Structure formats: C-alpha cells, structure tokens
Amino acid sequence: xxxxxxxxxxxxxxxxxxxxxxxxxxxxPTRAVLTAELGVTRATAGAxxxxxxxxxxxxxxxxxxxxxxxxxxxxxRLSVDPDGPVAxxxxxxxxxYRAALVGLGGNLVATAPGCGTVDADPAQVISEVxxxxxxxxxxxxxxxxxxxxxVPSAVAEPEGTALNPLHLAWQAGAPVRDTFRACxxxxxxxxxxxxxxxxxxxxxLNVAALAEHRHGAGRGARHLLVVGTGHHGVxxxxxxxxxxxxxxxxxxxxxGHLTVDPGGRPCxxxxxxxxxVETDPAALLAAAGREAGPGTSLLAQAEELVRTAYATDxxxxxxxxxxxxxxxxGLAGLVNILNPDRIxxxxxxxxxxxxxxxxxxxxxxxxxxxxxSGSVPVLxxxxxxxxxxxxxxxxWQPVLDDPIGVLGG
Length: 409
Fold this sequence. Notes:
Elements: H1 2-12, H2 16-24, H3 31-38, H4 42-54, E1 58-60, E2 78-80, E3 86-93, E4 96-102, E5 108-113, H5 122-140, E6 144-151, E7 155-156, E8 161-162, H6 176-186, E9 199-203, H7 204-215, E10 223-229, E11 234-240, E12 243-244, H8 275-278, H9 281-287, H10 298-309, H11 314-338, E13 342-346, H12 348-367, H13 369-373, E14 378-380, H14 386-401, H15 403-407
Parallel strand pairs: 3-6, 6-9, 10-13, 13-14
Antiparallel strand pairs: 1-2, 3-4, 4-5, 7-8, 10-11, 11-12
Helix pairs in contact: 1-4, 3-4, 5-6, 7-14, 9-10, 9-11, 10-12, 11-12
C-alpha cells in the first residue's frame, strides 16, 4: 500500500503546482473537478491533494458531499488553508503606504495603513512599510513565503528600478526592488529556517490586473484590459492567457499618456490632455469646483463625491460626464489596438462605471471598430485592495510553480 501511494505521489509531483493554482484561483472546488482539470486518475488527484494538505496549503474535506440535486458521486471539497502561510504585501502611493498579509486565494489576513506623506528617499518609506508588515507577521505568527511591493511607476526588468515615479518625489531609476530586499533582511523577514525571503517589485496597476484576473472581475477572461486611477494619474495593464504582458523590459501599457483632449491640461510627460491628467481624482475635483480637503486621500474624496453627489449635484454630474467621455475615448483607442475580451476599471474609474456605465459603454462602442461589431464588457473592479493582493501574487508565484521546491517536502 505504501509503495502504491508513493508511486502515485511521484507520478503527481509535476501536478502539484497546477493543482495548487487551480485551488488558489477557485477553479477546483472539489477533488472531482481537480481530477478532471488535471487529466489524471482519481488516485493521483487524491495523492496530489494530500501532499498539498501536508504542506499546509489546502484543506480537504473529510466528509465528501454531492451538490444539491446531483446524481453524481460525492466528492471531497478543496479549499485554501485559512491558517496557512502568507505573503507580505506592500504598496506605496502618492498619499502614503499600506502593508498587508495575504494568504492563498487572495485572502487578506491583516492590513495596516501607514503615513499620509511619502518621503523623497525611497529607502525611508520602503523601510517603514516593511517594518509595518514585519509587525503584522509577528502578531500573526504565520509562515512567510515571500514579499511583493507595488509602486506607482513602471518597473524596469531585469534591473528592478522605478523609471517614472512621476507622482512621488523619487528620482527616476530608484532601485526599488533591491531596496525592498535589503529592508526585508534588515527587518528580519525570513523563512522559518532563517533563510531570506525573496522580494519582488512591480507597477501597482500591473499587479492589480493580475489580482483581478485570478480573484476578481477579470476571472475567466483570456485577454483582460485593466485601466484605473491610483491616488494620482492613470495606469493600465494587459493580462494575456493568465500572464501579464509587460513588454520587452517591463514598460508596456503606459496608457496614462494617451491624448484624449489635445487642448487639455498640461501633463507631467510634456504633452497635453493625457488620460493621466484628464481622468484622475485631481481632474474630477477641479472640474467639479471642489477643493481637496485634509485627512483623506484625493482618491477617496473623488470616489465619495461621485457616489454621493452624482445624482443630485448638476456640476458634479457634468464633471463626471466629462471624465466618462474622455475615459471612453481612451478605452476605445485601446480596444482598437488590443481587442480585449473584457475591460475592468479600477480606482476612481470604478466609481465612474458604477455611476453611468451605459454612457461609458456607449462611448467605447461608438468610437471603436470592435465595439461596433460586438460589445466589450466593461466592469468595475471587484477587489478592494487589488494592488496589495496583486503584490502578494508576485510572492506566491514561485510557490505555485514549485510548492515542494519552495516549502520543502
């Protein structure tokens, strides 16, 4: 019996990563589904699930049940282990930072907001957010598999440098990935055996798109376009067949610098009327004649304005409509070039599609060739902290690729 089980497990070792990803993304809620998705025998699927459970990554329901109304054989339910390991996720934006612990399945275990201002020295703020995350780890007592950092800048690969942190006072080319890794080591964020965890860094919209594709409104899309506002500016990302399209060196999809109003506001890039300055929170507040107040971020203030005053305040409605039209114009151009099968809007853009999705979808359809021939779904993002969840996905990816290699046998 022992020899038979070992043989099945060895046969299924190569399936551990794909199996874990299926559970992680909610595509294999039962062992029967896992068996079908992997194309293996029931015995091999059982051995694979048992190994993942032994690693503390998933749980297997000991009492199989059949779906209501089903005539099929009962199957064991699979889910991520709620007490399993976590990734440390960190996000830096123009109004501060936030740290979080994120488990498999994109589950937020703990979060902690940080300062309201960002130091001009990247090492200072990255050190602060890492220390905050390290504190969450100590309080949780959880095992850490790795760490991910989301920043409002394109991150060049393989160097790991922030090339255009336009909305931070950082110098272009700041070595954010190396700095992040040094801060993790200094804060004592390690594996249980004392070895250093690996730190990753990427653009905040890129990782948000990855999170939405795996756990949110983009789940099931093959060619997913995500566009959104951060606290300042606009970013975009493209997920193709489950993988981020980052270009030859990590700099693809700088959609914020598409011109949507040739006579519009001056942009930081030197042009005028870019999405970056025509459809972000600052643009909405200015168009609505509202001054930014203290205490909360521009993003939070702009979202609240749309949600509470769009239906009752004519000036807010006019300003929101203007942003919707400019955003729709930019999206139409992207649809013509990229032909996505779904668009997900994040940040303030989520509030715009929630306020008047019909108007936005109409602009996209009228201005794009593909929109006229067949509608492209335009949806609000589903995850509240998608950049944090996405930063954690960077850290979870090595585990998804090779659970035994990262976590041990």
